[in-house]
Amino acid sequence: MRAGKKVKITGIQADWKHPTHIRFGVERIKELPDVCWSLGACFPLLVTDRGVAKLPVVRTIQELNREQSIETGVFSNISGEPDQDCVQQGAEYFRKNGHDSIIAIGGGSSLDAGKAIALAGAVGPKRIWSYRTDNPHPPGKARSIPPIIAIPTTTGTGSEVDANAVITQTETNRKISIFHKDLLPRVVIADPTLTRRLNPFLTAATGMDALSHNLEALCSPVFQPILDGIAIHALGLIKDWLPVAFGQGRNLEARTYTMAASIMGAMAFEKGLGAAHAVAHALGSAAKIHHGRAVGALLPFVLKMNQRAVTTKMVHLARNLALPGQDFQGVLNWILDLRQELGLPASLGELGIKQAHIPAIVENALTDVNLTTNPIPVTEVQLEKLLLRAVQGRL
Fold first, then answer.
1. Please, are residues 156 and 206 in contact by the beta-carbon 8 Å criterion?
2. Coil, strand, or helix at residue 258?
3. Sequence ranges of the domains in the chain
4. Could you tell me the end-to-end alpha-carbon distance of the chain, in angstroms, rounded to an integer?
5. Residue 177, helix vs strand vs coil
6. Which of 91, 149, 167, 372 is most deeply packed, by most CB within 10 A?
7. What is the fold, at CATH topology level, of the domain defined by 13-193?
8. E strands within 207-291?
9. What backbone torsions phi and psi does residue 140 show, to the nearest 5 degrees?
10. Which CATH number is 199-392 given?
11. C-alpha 79: how far from its chain's center?
């Protein structure tokens, strides 16, 4: 190669088949029309939130598809976390206009909404609750669910690679996780270039969510060493690259590796999560707090509560991450330092949660399925003590 010749760096690209077909890499959004045709998606409905709907990527998608004779409708009536009203509106829009597939693009809320709209379009909006994950007798085979294409624009939830959707039930004001195997997107386009507009606030919050998925999955008592390996490697990527993505939002290498770590977290938490997510879900129902910020505030307190059951795993993790202190405290210190570097709150009190809110939060958290895979059994009294420490910021 001649000196001085410029070479275009295209970045990492790969196709992964677990748990679904993932087209990962820079500018792979351009492959969307081919993906649509491969799935027979001739008239997809693009589901996103109001913020993403205003970004150039939505217009780009419509133009890319139109060039290959695919018309794309848009449903963007999503503000914050999705609830049953927006799912019902989306399902009605989907059926009324004769759409045949879903393109869900955005953060976890948009991806979950897209999946829930696909299910509601097949079984009816009211029947989606029959598919809640804690239903001991879920319905039989549903009518054909339209194919779903997922395009994440954040790097935290990993919703693009699971078959669940978390929706707020209006009557109870509780977050309900629904599941159907066909809610797993048929194809994921994971293009790191779509995350470069993510501001530092959301980079930090979604990054902490990805960290918590991997860490709670690793701490889960379920025996699955393959997923443990995924979680440990993802935590290494987060350690090396999340601070870079936070400080240098346009850094494509950092965005690439944090996106990979987010996807890996969703794979790992097939083992289950723990008390941090159980309480964070309850917090999300009680107050308008970003999930990643809630989890970040809770995680050190939950880790401390679980210490006796996870010490050996944390020593192994600390050694793999080459932390200064290669023990439980080393992991805890890393999380505390990272949280401070990202400007995330150190307590639930900083998020506006008060001691008076604790009983209602505990009541909701006790019904959350994630408590079943916490490393130690958690009682109502333990949750109350955990929340009191987290509100006051007392580790």
1. yes
2. helix
3. 13-193, 199-392
4. 57
5. strand
6. 167
7. Rossmann fold (3.40.50)
8. none
9. -75, -160
10. 1.20.1090.10
11. 17
